[in-house]
Amino acid sequence: MSKIPFFTTTLLSLFCLLAVAFTTPVADGVDHSAFDKLLKKHVNAKGLVDYKGFKADEKTFDQYLNMLSANAPKSSWSKQEQMAYWINAYNAYTIKLILNHYPVESIKDIGSKIKIPFVTTPWAAKFFTIGGEKMSLDNIEHGTLRKKYDDPRIHFALVCASISCPRLRNEAYTASKLDAQLNDQGKDFLNNPAKNKITKDAAQLSKYFDWYKGDWNDNGQTVVKWVDKYSDTKITDDTKISYLDYNWKLNEQ
């Protein structure tokens, strides 16, 4: 068998590599593994946060936030990739907001410290940038997630750094696991007696079900149907529903 010249084999190898590069799909979305590691390190099983620990790892945390800032979701991303991005961004920037003002007893205390005209709540403050656009937490929740994706389960995942919020998951949301993660958050939230107290005859629900009643009633759904989807104790239209007071104390370990 005649030998193939070295130059020819090199060219063949290069062509093979190029062929693989052009035929292998490029993954969309961003890598949330850095946030995942921080959540596993600084958030316990109850969803309580070690803000001092996050403060100690703030350099690493800021690198993740800078990556989010520079990589806004694209239309080519799947719905799951986009939603996972925005949920992680909301939770991460909420933690960053607390760190910026730490120590605080409540996120609502930050509102009184904001000295920006027409901005009276921490959720309205545009303190970060995504894709070159100054944004607030309200922009993510109301202007993007609620407006664009029409999935009330986001309310089980967005965490406003307060005791009455859903549990902050000690893992990042990812496209491949998003549906299971949101359903798990719903089960955890509805069956936590600190968040919802449910019996067949009377249900004391989180204020979330009052504040976002329009979301829960969209697409032929109702608050009762959503509760029954995740609660171990089922209710009916005859169940007396009231809403618990909201505890804004910081969700700190």
TrEMBL record:
Organism this protein belongs to: Spirosoma rhododendri
Keywords assigned by UniProt, alphabetized: Signal
Stretches assigned to the DUF547 domain: 75-190
Signal found in the keyword field: yes
Name of the protein in its database record: DUF547 domain-containing protein
PANTHER family per the UniProt record, alphabetical: ELECTRON CARRIER/ PROTEIN DISULFIDE OXIDOREDUCTASE, ELECTRON CARRIER_ PROTEIN DISULFIDE OXIDOREDUCTASE
Lineage top rank: taxon: Bacteria
Annotated signal peptide: 1-27
Keyword Signal: yes
